[in-house]
Amino acid sequence: MGKGGNKTMVLSILVDNTAGVLSRVAGLFSRRGYNIDSLTVGETENSEISRMTVAVTGDEAILEQITKQLSKLEDVREIVELFPTTSVCRELVLIKVATTHAERTELNTIANIFRANVVDVSADFMMMELTGSTNKVDAFIKLLDGFEIKELVRTGITGLTRGISVED
């Protein structure tokens, strides 16, 4: 649940893989004053189709309006809301932390607890990658609060519905 009665909705949107499609979808949000929490896009198993995963927060009426407006776009083929119980959503984070030799053991311990991978080490820095739910990524970053984070990048949420859909 988002702030003040708002909820966060994650949409998986199949679109034609054409020039300008990202701009048209993002433009729909900006023209109406809706803020995108995260947006990922990539080609699917079919090179003519891309999948966008958009996380957006708002009240029920705004979220319903967003879905209706998206469905009117010419490039949009399908829109599916990704619910936590019927989908798998993940995020990737890369974090570069300034470190001393003495701090490396503690950072390795934190990385192991979260099943993060150390992907680069130098005399002064350690870079880790972690894939998981947004909550897991947030918790990992929070645990690194006492360290000097030099750079951090998050991919944003991406996801798919599970193999067997649960119907009421």
pLDDT averaged over residues: 91
What is the CATH fold-level name of the largest domain? Alpha-Beta Plaits
Shape: elongated
Total count of strands: 9
Biggest pleated sheet: 5 strands, antiparallel
Number of helices: 4
Q: Ends: how far apart?
A: 22 Å
Structural class: alpha+beta
What is the CATH architecture term of the largest domain? Answer: 2-Layer Sandwich
CATH class of the largest domain: Alpha Beta
Strand content: 35-45%
Low-confidence stretches: none
Radius of gyration: 19 Å
Short description:
With 168 residues, the chain is of the alpha+beta class. It is built from four helices and nine strands; from the N terminus they run E-H-E-E-H-E-E-H-E-E-H-E-E. It folds into two domains: 7-81, Alpha-Beta Plaits (2-Layer Sandwich); 88-160, Alpha-Beta Plaits (2-Layer Sandwich).
